Amino acid sequence: EVQLVESGGGLVQPGGSLRLSCAASGFTLSNYAMSWVRQAPGKGLEWVSAISGSGYSTYYADSVKGRFTISRDTSKNALYLQMNSLRAEDTALYYCAKHPSDWPLNGDYWGQGTLVTVSS
Amino acid sequence: ETVMTQSPATLSVSPGERATLSCRASQSVSTSLAWYHQKPGQAPRLLISGASTRATGIPARFSGSGSGTEFTLTISSLQSEDFAVYYCQQYNNWPYTFGQGTNLEIK
């Protein structure tokens, strides 16, 4: 059974950093692309970043480019999102999502999310 | 960026009736279009990919159609568990983008 469990969210001041983790089980991370998608309180969904199954290709939304970095550790079957220079508008529930192939497509499995709050 | 526009914003339908949701892309996304629904406090769940292919475990009452810029999700006979927010998402052009959602509520 595929399971995705996010962690690492919390309250951080503007300009601060956080590292989100997504523990994957039930499949081998290196065979599938993965993404981070966020949802601001009461708002819709926004694709933040994706990484291909090989790990060689990464993609970022313009809103986070240069500040966020997606990565993974295949030995731990874990996905990460390093978030620097955080802003109030980054406040959201962050989901990790698995793709059905080694290339980012639709998200076929989603975690329950971890909440990031950026506030002084 | 490919802008996805969903209509209507809110759709009120009685259980057992048909619901039709629309999604329009600002440029062609071919059939690289997915539909999700999201219930309060839950993660999104994939319903349809490739514009018309039901995901694993999704009942046959859900059907998707369209290509290019115009897409439709039809729920043939609404069940109580279908009332939720529905999102379309294109994955043809990076950045991948979602529509703003259609809130399907009980009439």
What does this protein structure show overall?
The complex is a heterodimer of chains A (120) and B (107). With 120 residues, chain A is mainly beta. Helix content of chain A is 0%, strand content 48%. Chain A has no helices and 11 strands. Chain A has strands spanning 3-7, 10-12, 18-25, 34-39, 45-51, 58-60, 68-73, 78-83, 92-98, 109-110, 114-118. In chain A, a hairpin with a 4-residue loop joins strand 7 (68-73) and strand 8 (78-83). The model of chain A has no long low-confidence stretch (mean pLDDT 96). In chain B, the strands form 2 sheets. In chain B, strands 2, 4, 5, 6, 9, 10 and 11 form a 7-stranded mixed β-sheet that branches. Chain B is mostly beta strands. Chain B has no helices and 11 strands. The radius of gyration of chain B is 13 Å and the shape is globular. The interface between A and B is medium-sized, with 23 and 24 residues.
Strand composition percent of chain B: over 45%
Q: Give the CA-based shape of chain B.
A: globular
In total, the number of strands of chain A is 11
How many separate helices of chain B?
A: 0
- Could you state the order of secondary-structure elements of chain B as H and E? EEEEEEEEEEE
Strand percentage of chain A: over 45%
Q: Globular, elongated, flat, extended or rod-shaped: what is the shape of chain A?
A: globular
Largest interface: A-B, 23 and 24 residues
Estimated helix fraction of chain A: under 10%
Kindly report the average pLDDT value of chain A. 96
